[in-house]
């Protein structure tokens, strides 16, 4: 019986990401979970909190308009459940707004600048741009194909990228070129 690590390596395990036509530039077609949360704007959290509070607020309103009279603990457990569902909805709303900027579906000037700064700094330090992974290149490709553009369907099936890999649908040469320009400018100043 063969294990997953015994899968033969192909010459090109890389399946390129489909280019999606959008008005704004693509930052990453499969951003890591930490980057999506880290790049979220404060307004994303405000929208998420507002959206997440709709269910508990509507439960309170319905209880005021037409009381259920379920007894001492009945309404409290219903509020706990609606609060939990509201928290999940708030998180998914925040995550969705943030990841749509990575895909270039909404205005993303701030995130483009943050991405350039983060990646150029990694290049200057000599670190891998998208981090290191203990997975084989083949398994990194599998993980990438499973979660690429998964944020578009987060409302149907939450699926996040927790794997560091190098298949993000963007040309990374721009980071190296910018790092070279900055290093050259620093060298000329000194």
TrEMBL record:
All copies of domain NADH-ubiquinone oxidoreductase 21kDa subunit N-terminal, residue ranges: 22-107
Transmembrane segments: 45-62, 74-95
Domain of life: Eukaryota
Keyword annotations: Membrane, Transmembrane, Transmembrane helix
Classification via Pfam families: NADH-u_ox-rdase (PF10785), NADH_u_ox_C (PF12853)
NADH-ubiquinone oxidoreductase 21kDa subunit C-terminal fungi domain residues: 116-188
PANTHER family: NADH-UBIQUINONE OXIDOREDUCTASE 21KDA SUBUNIT N-TERMINAL DOMAIN-CONTAINING PROTEIN (PTHR34062:SF1), OXIDOREDUCTASE 21 KDA SUBUNIT, PUTATIVE (AFU_ORTHOLOGUE AFUA_4G04750)-RELATED (PTHR34062)
Name of the molecule in the record: NADH-ubiquinone oxidoreductase 21 kDa subunit
Lineage: Eukaryota, Fungi, Dikarya, Ascomycota, Pezizomycotina
